Amino acid sequence: MAQEDVFKKLVSHCKEYGFVFPSSEIYDGLGAVYDYGQNGVELKNNIKQYWWQSMVLLHENIVGIDSAIFMHPTIWKASGHVDAFNDPLIDNRDSKKRYRADVLIEDQIAKYDEKINKEVAKAAKKFGDAFDEAQFRSTNARVLEHQAKRDALHQRYSDAMNAGPDLNELRQIILDEEIVCPISGTKNWTEVRQFNLMFSTEMGSTADGSMKVYLRPETAQGIFVNYLNVQKTGRMKIPFGIAQIGKAFRNEIVARQFIFRMREFEQMEMQFFVKPGTELEWFKKWKEIRLKWHKALGFGDDHYRYHDHEKLAHYANAATDIEFLMPFGFKEVEGIHSRTNFDLSQHEKFSGKNIKYFDPETNESYTPYVIETSIGVDRMFLSIMSASYKEEQLENGESRVVLKLPAALAPVKLAVMPLVKKDGLPEKAREIIDALKFHFNCQYDEKDSIGKRYRRQDAIGTPYCVTVDHQTLEDNCVTLRNRDTMQQERVAIADLDRLIADRVSITSLLKTL
Ligand code: GAP
User: Fold this and answer.
1) Residue 264: exposed, middle, or buried by beta-carbon count in 10 A (0-12, 13-18, 19+)?
2) How far apart are CA 466 and CA 423, in angstroms?
3) pLDDT (tens digit, 9 = 90+) per residue, 218-229?
4) What is the pTM assigned to this prediction?
5) pLDDT, tens digit, for every residue of 253-282?
6) Measured in angstroms, how far is the CA atom of residue 81 from the centroid of ligand 1?
7) Residue 319: CB within 6 Å of ligand 1?
8) In degrees rounded to 5, what are phi and psi of residue 452?
C-alpha cells in the first residue's frame, strides 16, 4: 500500500477509535488544532510519563517544574522571539491564499526528487535483476538533467535562506521556477513578508493600559527564567537539569500532516546547565541518551536517524535532530541543541539581575552553558501510532487492523470479557477487574462475539485480553490472549497480575535504558 494511503488510514483510525478528533468538529473544525479522545489521552499520558520518569526519576541531578504559559513579555524580547521568530509568507492575489515561501520552494525541490525516483522505478521495472541503480543515476540523461536542476535550486534556496532570509530572492525563485498557486493555478504572487509566529493577547483592563502578552511558543523560556530559583532552592550543583512538559503555541501558516504541525501542541523540554567548555561533551552524551530512549520502544533502529545541523542559529554551537521514519518520510521528532549561554545571558541583560552560578569547587562565577533536549509530545504520538499501525492477513482468510503499541504505552492493558452475558460470567469478569484495576488500566467488554471484541481491542492496541467462560467458575482459570501472536493460554486468575503487570509497566521499559 502506498505510504500516502497508510497515512490517510491512520488519520481516520485515530478518529474512529477515539485517539484524535479535529478540534471544534461540530463547528467544522479549527485549522491545525486537535483534541485527544479517550484512548488518545491515555497514550499521550503514557508517553509523557515515560519521558518524565526517564528524566526526573532516573537522573538525580534533574528536577521538574511547571511554569505558566503567560510570561512577562520582555522574556520574548530577550529570547529573540519578538524580532526573529518569523516565517516568510507570500500571498496569491487570485485565490487570496497565503503560503510559506520556503515551503513552496521545498515542495518544488521535492517534485524534482519525485521525477528522479519515477525514472529510477521505471528503469528498475524494465531491467529487473540486472538493474544497477547507482550506474543508472549517474548516467541516465533525464535523471542527470533533473538532478542538475534540483541541485541548482537547492543551492539558490539555501543561499537565500542563509542571507537573512533574502525575501526578494525567495520571491524571484518562486517566479523563476514558475511555481503556481495550487488553488488558482496562477503565478500572480505578492511580495514575500516576514510573519511572526507568536500568538498574542491583552492582559489587564484596556482602559488603563493593558499589556500585550504572548502565548509561549516554547516551554524552554519558563525554565531559563526559573533557573536561579531552582538552583538556589534545590541546592543544585552544576551540571544539573530542569525538565518541563507543557503546551506551546505557534501560529503556523502551513499546518498540515495532521498532528505533525499544530498551532497548539505540547513539548517535553529539558535544559541541562553545564560548565562552559564542557558543553560539547554533554551534547554528545545527550544525543546518545535521547536516541536510546527512542529505540527502547522497539520499532527497529532503521526508524531513526540523526540530522546534524550544518547551519547553526547564531547562539548555538551544535545542534541535531532525531528524525523518525513517518509515512511521509524521515521527519524531526526531537531537537538536541547546544545553546551556549545565550538565553541566560540575554535574561541577565534584559532583567538587570545577576543570574550567574557560583562554583564552590573552583570559587568562580560564570553563566552556565546549556544543552537542550526538546521533543514534541504530539509528534512522538504520531510516530508511535504510525509505526504501530498494521493491517494483517490472517491464516483463516480474515484480516485485522492491529496497533502494535509498546505495551507500556498502550491505553488499555487488559480487556476482560465474559463469554456470555449471563450465568454469573459478567460478575466473575468484574471481580477480576476490581482486583487488577489498581495496577493497570483494564476494560470490561461484553458486547458482540468474542472475535469482534478481540478485533476492537486489537484496533486500540490492548496487549492482553482475558475471556471468562463457564469453566472459569469451576477452576478459577481464564483464557489469556496475546495481541501480537494471537496465542491463547489457560492461566489461573491468581497469576494474571504477575503475568501482565511487569510486561505492561513503564518501569520495565525504563529498566531497559
Ligand atoms: N526550545 C526549542 C524548540 O522549541 P523546536 O525545534 O522549535 O525547538 C522542538 O521544537 C520540538 O517541538 C520539535 O522537534 C517538534 O517535535 C515540536 N514542535 C515544534 N513545532 C511544532 C508544531 N507546530 N506542532 C507540533 N510539534 C511541534
Assistant:
1) middle
2) 17
3) 999 999 999 999
4) 0.90
5) 876 789 999 999 999 999 999 999 999 999
6) 14
7) no
8) -65, -40
